[in-house]
Amino acid sequence: MATAPRPRTTTRDPEELGRLLTAWLSARLPGAKATNVTVPESNGMSSETLLFDIEHPEPPLTACALRLAADPSAYTIFPVYDMERQHRVMRLVGEHTELPVPRVQWLEPDPGPLGAPFFVMERKEGRVPPDVMPYTYEGNWLHSASDAERERLEEASIVLIAKLHDQFPVEEAEFLASPGDGSALRRHVEAQRTYYEWVVRDVARSPLIETAFDRLEELWPADEGEAVLNWGDARIGNIIYDGFEPAAVLDWEMAALAPREVDLGWTIYLHRFFQDLTVMFGQPGLPDFLRRDRIEARYGELTGHTPRDMDFHLLYAALRHAVVMLRVAYRQVHFGETTVPADPKDVDKLILHHASLAAMVQGSYWD
């Protein structure tokens, strides 16, 4: 992991994007100019981010961030990038909750100006726990923090999720329900099956992922619980922190209507994903940070809702992440950054956390 190449995150030219952005901006604010246009190195492989300032006598925002849908020609991670949906979610969360969501400004659904739809929001300053190399590795600000500082960050992050679930009126989230029939959870899982089928279209399928879907059916909750607005990508790597307090909650492209535990499972497992990788490569990581028992207990104290069927929801989180990781791997194959195993039976090895997912399927991971 220490020497693996970072997967390609963009195929776009930052200078060209800056020129196009200035042309678009000046049409909305005559005389306005986009300055200091940069593409962060931490850009993900789904939506891309541009940072820029607005030079204008009366700008509605001065420090801006632009979220740009993925280049459709660049082997995208997800099949659809609904920027209008993300823009609406962030606006509504800002209106109905205490979460520090950046104020959204313009929405541009026309792909013409920058090659894909986008929206502009205020830019928040602070620091984000890194994904590459993961914050569980030595040498970054969160790993170097004291236990007490990490506990502050953990507590504040769990409070965010609890407030989102408790404060957001569920009727305002109905537009986020997955298509189909049945409960919110059933529809959410079926949407993931559909996503998996898209990922493996014209490429080798994953026996492990398909076995994990079967195992989900065996563990299906007797009482699924209420559906609430789920952040979707609920993890500390999507929060900007001022010190150890959240300053901005980002990345709402996976927002959904689902039981509370769907978010909690994602939060717990995505940390375990980084922790397991770190241990695999010879470092202790942060074994006492974001522990499952502590997150579940604290969430229950904050909301009065005791998380239930968490083995199901943690398996579901690991399964969902495996589908994403398989798509990322096939994207790397597309760009010549890796190769598909010669033996089709080994395709599961393209999934970074295939061993932990297999252990979850077998019921031995949390032993």
UniProtKB/TrEMBL annotation:
One MF term in the entry's GO annotations: transferase activity
Keyword Transferase applies: yes
Keyword Transferase: yes
Record keywords: Transferase
One Pfam family hit: APH
Residue intervals of the Aminoglycoside phosphotransferase domain: 82-271
Official protein name in the record: Phosphotransferase family protein
Lineage of producing organism: Bacteria, Bacillati, Actinomycetota, Actinomycetes, Kitasatosporales
